[in-house]
What does this fold into?
Amino acid sequence: MSESSNAKKASAGKKAPARRKSAAKKAATARKAAARKAPAKRAPAVTPVSVLIVGAGFAGLGMAIRLKQAGIDDFVILERGNAVGGTWRDNQYPGAACDIPSNLYSYSFAPNPNWSRSFSGSQEILDYIHHLVAEFDLEKHIRFEKNVADLSFDEKTGVWTATTDKKERFAGRAAIMAQGPLSNCSFPNITGIDDFAGKKIHSARWDHDYDFTGKNVAVIGTGASGIQIIPELVNVAKHVKVFQRTPGWVLPRPDFSTPEWNKLLFKKLPASQQAMRNLLYWTHESMALAVIWNSPLTRIAERVAKLHLRRQVKDRWLRRQLTPDFTIGCKRVLVSNDYYPALQKDNAKLITWPIARISEKGVRTVEGIEHQVDCIVFATGFDVSNSGTPFPVKGRGGRVLGEQWKGGAQAYKSINVAGFPNLFMTFGPNSGPGHNSALVYMESQLEYALKGIRKIIGENLKVLDVKEEVQQRYNKSIQKRLAKTNWNSGCKSWYLTEDGFNATMYPGFATQYAAQMADFREDDYETA
Ligand code: N01
It folds into this structure.
């Protein structure tokens, strides 16, 4: 070794501590600068489950059951409430019941031989839902009080992340939106609603502690909820004033209690219950010809409803007030045996003058009368989002579903949307039935989603995304078919947006819907 090289080493040795000090100083400054620049601390990664389900109502729980039956057990259900049941947990108003027979308004893969009536009440339906949770051991999968505030897809990992309003995060390789179309109740936009000093109750958020005995009550709204509540209130309140904006078509309700022998038969011979379900299914299918399209059967259905009205209401003027001026089926067809009789009780009155405003003491109608009441019941329906999503849903390339749907919601077969891979909707756009059980439609959606999920997991896909042109072609045909239906025949209903766009209903038989959902075409999807 030469002297000079030794000298270099020595000099390097002397300089090293000084250099290390300045390097450490630089690193600290850089860290401080980075810390100042970084927007927030990165949240730790969340291990994704196979399937993330939003909502523990009929749809979310049904999906969970089908996943379990298919051997997929790692899924999580996020529920914003503290109990299961969705709409049947929320709609516990007096008289709440299903207007579709229970043997059809239940899952075919979980029949209940014990329905007490042909049209069961909401408590019995809720009991059925609780029974499903226990029988299929679903409780351990449910995370209560998780109100999803954001659902975002990461294309690199192929994972959906749900962030709650409390910033908790859950991730899944596939996501199911099962939050329900009728989950947010809606108070009407009537002037002075906040001025009312009495009690306000919405049909979907009933206050069971409020005692109606001896009270003067106003009910606003005469849709499916209103006509179930009114007969019950008339039985207990001092006086009930019913504010009707549009009279609906009301058909008789063939409601009977189930004899014990019948329950036993269904239990011992499940095929007999299936036969009953089939009979109900096809009876409702035939109703499509009257309700969905304007046909000679539509006239027959209207005649039956008018006969029902004539039989139950003897007063000609009242009959006139209760006679609809739109084609049957345009709005949801109502079924009741006790609504018309209730309106004619001494302590009930139908008011058809339009509401001008709500005052401190009650409801003021346009002719200047103030109807003073202790309580106003709002049976005014739900905040149905036909053009938005309940929380931001962010897909590929930064697209936001609510933005895309501004002109009206649309999806492929009601279940997938291009640009939002691995996401399946229950009761998505144009999946609503007007004549048959919602659960029949729901079952088809669950089977379809299951096929997609199996493909994602089985082929280890990051992306299963419906092709844009396939979705557009499908929707063009749906809207063309909708133009010929009674829903688009001129009445105002929650099925349509303010602009008259129908993003809600499926223009066909349940059988047609089920057939399209049974047909999962791999070519319709882009995979990665
Ligand atoms: O709500 P709706 P719903 N001033 O929107 C009136 C399901 N469901 O809760 O017809 C005055 O049908 C409005 O008047 P109009 C079912 O799918 C199922 O009754 O718009 N009135 C209407 O009368 C159903 O379709 C079951 O002129 C106002 C009522 O409020 C859906 O839920 C049972 C008003 C709203 O009727 C919704 O039914 C119950 C205003 N400003 C519900 N705003 C089953 O049995 C609204 N109205 C399965």
Notes: The longest strand covers residues 169-177. Residues 113 and 268 are 9 Å apart (CA to CA). The pocket of 3-acetylpyridine adenine dinucleotide is lined by residues 98-99, 182, 188, 190, 203, 220-226, 245-246, 332, 355, 379-382, 492, 494 (CB under 6 Å).
